[in-house]
């Protein structure tokens, strides 16, 4: 699978860098302003989910009703707080093995793409100093359907000029694994084998592949 792939498509959060902690802090801050607690357990439901869908889950947790204008305002406030956190990201925060594995793939002629729901993906890659290691960046500004819909991975493989079956997807969320499978790609899960049981292979991190 990894030996024969022509393209590699990576999710961002939890695969290349751990910005999930900053998402959580920003969502928790919003929940506190709305008058309820949003726990780390609650936050697990947001993995791989778009910003507006994440907000919907958060409001359900808190039993809060809000109209469209209020929702947009809440999402914007959350994002501003999140961007404030990630504006201080440094290259040292790249997850172990990620940079080395990206370089290894490029040395072998494998095309590399990002497939992330994040609308801040390019900003994060720039902060980490690894933008040039990607041949294509497909993020939340270029697709509208959230995982487990395969849109982001279909767009990424197309941007690489490859068929989905020629690509391997690297994901840390169950919804992302499902999206990769639906796209027609093989999937490497990064994290718990219990959560990512549908993946073709599960590893602890990209450091295992270097």
UniProtKB/TrEMBL annotation:
**EC number assigned by the record:** 5.4.2.6
As to how many cofactors bind and how, the note says: Binds 2 magnesium ions per subunit.
Q: Name one GO biological process term.
A: carbohydrate metabolic process
Give the first-level EC class, as a single word.
Answer: isomerase
- The source's superkingdom equals Bacteria
A Pfam family that the UniProt record links to this protein: Hydrolase
Q: Where is this site: Important for catalytic activity and assists the phosphoryl transfer reaction to Asp8 by balancing charge and orienting the reacting groups?
A: 116, 147
What SUPFAM superfamilies does this protein's entry cite? HAD-like
Q: Name one GO molecular function term.
A: magnesium ion binding
Question: Which positions does UniProt annotate for substrate binding?
Answer: 11-13, 27, 46-51, 54, 78, 116-120, 147
Q: Keywords for this entry?
A: Carbohydrate metabolism, Isomerase, Magnesium, Metal-binding, Phosphoprotein
Reaction(s) this enzyme catalyzes, per UniProt: beta-D-glucose 1-phosphate = beta-D-glucose 6-phosphate
Cofactor(s) recorded for this entry are: Mg(2+)
Keyword GTP-binding set for record: no
Catalytic center at which residues? 11, 13
Annotated Mg(2+) binding lies at 11, 13, 171-172
Matches recorded under InterPro entries: B-phosphoglucomutase_hydrolase (IPR010976), Beta-PGM (IPR010972), Beta-PGM-like (IPR051600), HAD-like_sf (IPR036412), HAD-SF_hydro_IA (IPR006439), HAD_sf (IPR023214), PGP-like_dom2 (IPR023198)
**Similarity section:** Belongs to the HAD-like hydrolase superfamily. CbbY/CbbZ/Gph/YieH family.
Q: Spell out the PANTHER family in the cross-references.
A: 6-PHOSPHOGLUCONATE PHOSPHATASE, HEXITOL PHOSPHATASE B
Q: What is this protein called?
A: Beta-phosphoglucomutase
Source species of the chain:
Fontibacillus phaseoli
